[in-house]
Amino acid sequence: MDTEVIRGARVSHERASVGQIETAAGEDTRGVVESLLAHDGIAEAFALQTCNRAEAYVVADSTEAGRAALSLLGAGLDDGSVVAETGHEESLRHLMRVASGLESLVIGEDQILGQFKRAVEIARGAGGLGPTLETGLTKAVHVGERARTETVINDGVTSVGSAAVRLAERERTLDGATALVVGAGEMGKLAARALADAGVAKVAVANRTIPHAEHVAGYVDADAHAVALDDVRDVLPDADVVVTATGHSEYLVDPEDVAVAGETFVIDLAQPRDVDPAAAGVDAVEIRDIDDLESVTAETRANREAAAREVEAMIDAEFNRLLEEYKRRQADEVISTMYEAAERMKAREVETAVSQLEAGGDLSDEQREVVESMADALVGQLLAAPTKSLREAAVEDDWATIRTAMELFDPEFGDAGPGGDDPPDGVPVDGTDGAPGPPRRDGGKPGFPIEGTSDD
Description:
The chain has helices at residues 18-24, 29-37, 63-70, 88-100, 111-125, 131-150, 160-171, 186-197, 210-219, 232-235, 255-259, 294-303, 305-358, 365-395, 399-409; strands at residues 5-12, 42-50, 53-60, 84-86, 178-182, 202-207, 223-228, 241-244, 264-268, 285-289. It is α/β, with parallel strands linked by helices. It folds into 3 domains: 5-156 and 306-317, Glutamyl-tRNA reductase, N-terminal domain (Beta Polymerase, domain 2, 2-Layer Sandwich); 160-297, 3-Layer(aba) Sandwich (Rossmann fold); 332-416, no CATH class. Strand 2 and strand 3 form a beta hairpin. Residues 414-456 have low confidence and may be disordered. It catalyses: (S)-4-amino-5-oxopentanoate + tRNA(Glu) + NADP(+) = L-glutamyl-tRNA(Glu) + NADPH + H(+). Pfam families: GlutR_dimer (PF00745), GlutR_N (PF05201), Shikimate_DH (PF01488). The record marks 94 as: Important for activity. This is Glutamyl-tRNA reductase.
């Protein structure tokens, strides 16, 4: 039985190197969403790309369609084992973990929530979000916000930028040093502030847009100034420590640039990378990337274990609420069908009754209203108990009752496939990969998940 399902795929720091993440990532997030939507059978799509993850999710009308669309994530990778695939429930739970910071290289980091929200806006603008992903992503953002306001998960080192500076402090004396930050985005801003807090005397901020670099320079408590991105090679020789964090598609620093820089410590946080890996072969220059932050982030992870357990419990509760919301929605769809059918029958019978009464003389408007009100009252009273029973049936996963109701009130429903205890289309059965389904392409009713299972 094919159902409209959520599927996800990701390449992240959990099992992939920076280079592999770079290969898996698309040119831009919107382009990835649009490419996913272009595949047959894909109704919704979402993508998240950061310095340490490339993730994609789709709502598909079958497991096969979902996998086919997501195959583009690992298309350029020699090692397919670095791609993690998830079914609908695991995908939804993972998205909550990402937004709350539990899946970050720096546990509890704040930056990921902002990146997550921007990715949601991009997917929405590209037409990628429908009722399924919209509901799940909204819940994930809610969990991320709760995690940061109700626990101490983000105390201490709260960003990859600050973790990079912590690493630099272990390798170099930063007090009185000169630093260069390449990139004036959120990560560059956090790195610049952390460098100033670590005691560097001067900070140069390079960016393609000078006003943005000036804004970051004014944000740090040090002697800071802005430079153009094209001038990086000129200011590099003066820097003792360099942190790069741009979204540039090409290398900004090559071996020739660092060859004249003298003794320099470089941390490349960009995705794709800003520094040509070949530059690591230059004497007197040490280059680190996100993979090298593990020792710093391990400390943070240990210090936040108690808070992480709180967030895990929060995710469990919110995940259950999400499933209940999908269940209520499925019941509401069935109830809506029931009322639509009853309304059609009521309208027919009212018209028949009015015609028969008018055979003995015209009815007044008030008399017509009495007939229609009586019909409305009968429908309401007759359907009150079935409405309550259907909502209870959805909560209890009693799909035999719901199927029977659909067949009673929607004659065409029973013709769509075999009867029995299977849930309606779009709702998972044992052994299938189900998900809250968007409106079907054939114009049928949407389906929503009731504790479906993943085939992973």
